[in-house]
Write a structure and sequence with these properties.
The protein is of the alpha/beta class and 141 residues long. It has seven helices and five strands. α7 links the parallel β4 and β5. The protein is globular, with a radius of gyration of 14 Å.
């Protein structure tokens, strides 16, 4: 199956958080070519942003941040250029009153005609009614 992978899921590959087990099973399936994972090409920056936040919260050390980022990038989803997605992402951001980065993932899933997997409860709450293809990581088997 093809999914758009939100960075909130990929971060669970390297930080022990709720649903990290499901995220790691998804990663294993991706490595074994069971699933195809795609993300807008802002993905690497978003992953590093989350790791920087974890470092500020003293959940990881500054040195660990770079190591964990490299670990995520070793299984990076196929990156989709974000520039063509911006007009639709803007419309989605305005309609749902959500951030443009989240809207890029929604627009990418819409364009690719597949589900968006996220662990971002706020994104799910704000987007799922209008975009039922937005799916929480917890719903994976």
């Amino acid at each position: 199956m093809k999914y758009i992978l939100d960075s909130s899921v990929a971060v669970k590959w390297v930080l022990v958080e709720p649903y990290s087990d499901k995220a790691n099973l998804l990663r294993d399936d991706y490595r074994n070519a069971i699933h195809e994972l795609l993300s807008p090409d802002v993905f690497p920056v978003e992953v590093m942003h989350a790791l920087t936040k974890a470092e500020r919260q003293k959940r990881i050390s500054a040195i660990q941040g770079g190591i964990l980022w490299a670990d995520v990038m070793a299984t990076c989803p196929k990156l989709v250029p974000y520039l063509p997605l911006i007009p639709r992402a803007y419309d989605i951001a305005s309609q749902l009153r959500i951030g443009i980065y989240d809207s890029l993932y929604v627009a990418c899933a819409e364009e690719e005609k597949c589900e968006l997997l996220t662990a971002d409860d706020k994104l799910l709450k704000n987007a799922q009614q209008q975009f039922p293809f937005v799916r929480h990581l917890s719903t994976l088997p």
